[in-house]
Amino acid sequence: MPVIRILIASIFITASVAQAQPSLQIGPVGNAMMISPTMPGTTLFQDNLDGTFDWEGSMMMVGMWQAQWDLLIDTDPGVSGVFAITNTSGMQQSFVFNVATPVSVSVPAGAQFNSSSALTLADANFNGTALLAAPTGSSVFAGLIDGAVESTLYNDPFSLLVGAVGGTAVNAAGDAGTTSRNLVGTLGITHSIVLSPGDSATANSTFFVVPEPTSAALMLGAGMVLIRRRKKTGVKR
């Protein structure tokens, strides 16, 4: 039956999208590294077979920076986890950490979204001072829908300071609302920070969108209605 063929095609497409893998971009602005789950640096990448992935790993450039991540990625759709970076150079640097995942559902504009981020800054070189700041004209956190910014936290001129030897400073923020655009391809988070030399920053962040019923589920419901109608009316093909 045509209805059954459409249902099978829809379910196949949804499953194919869910099997696509997320990606990372880490490093200094202008020289960040693109990382896939199969590249060196990933210590764990696990497909949980329910549309979610666990991704842990680390990466470094000797004398420049080192980073670690521990992420839970949901294609249905959301991203959450911890990212840490240490500026091992002798100069202030601007860093980016981007994570993006293909989504298994299309979500129309007007859906609910939630974003949150908790930042920790540490005086890792024990010189008594540390700085984390938003880049000029930008934000430390951005929640992305199909590569476009949907939600921001810690907007310029935000900064976090430590003024004690070996000290730390923390800050938490959140945002919620309705999406301004359709979600059809990818959902992600971008962190952009200016970090003082020798110091470490950690972000524990989340961004997710509450989906409408999937198109496959809607089509399944419509298909069942058509089948019942055919049984009642005796329509045959």
Report on the structure:
The chain has one domain. The protein has helices spanning 2-19, 215-233; strands at 23-28, 33-35, 42-47, 52-61, 65-74, 78-87, 93-102, 112-122, 130-133, 139-145, 148-155, 159-162, 168-178, 186-195, 200-209. The longest helix has 19 residues, at 215-233. The radius of gyration is 22 Å and the shape is globular. A hairpin with a 3-residue loop joins strand 4 (52-61) and strand 5 (65-74). With 237 residues, it is an alpha+beta fold. 16% of the residues lie in helices and 51% in strands. Strands 1, 2, 7, 9, 10, 11, 12 and 14 form an eight-stranded antiparallel sheet that branches. The protein has a seven-stranded antiparallel sheet with strand order 3-4-5-6-15-8-13, with no helix packed on it.
| E-strand count | 15
Biggest pleated-sheet summary: 8 strands, antiparallel
What is the residue-mean pLDDT, rounded to a whole number?
85
Oligomerization: single chain
Q: What is the count of distinct domains?
A: 1
Structural class: alpha+beta
Tell me the radius of gyration: 22 Å
Strand content: over 45%
- Measured distance between first and last alpha carbons: 8 Å
The proportion of residues forming helix, as a percent range, comes to 10-25%
Helix segment tally: 2
Order of helices and strands: HEEEEEEEEEEEEEEEH
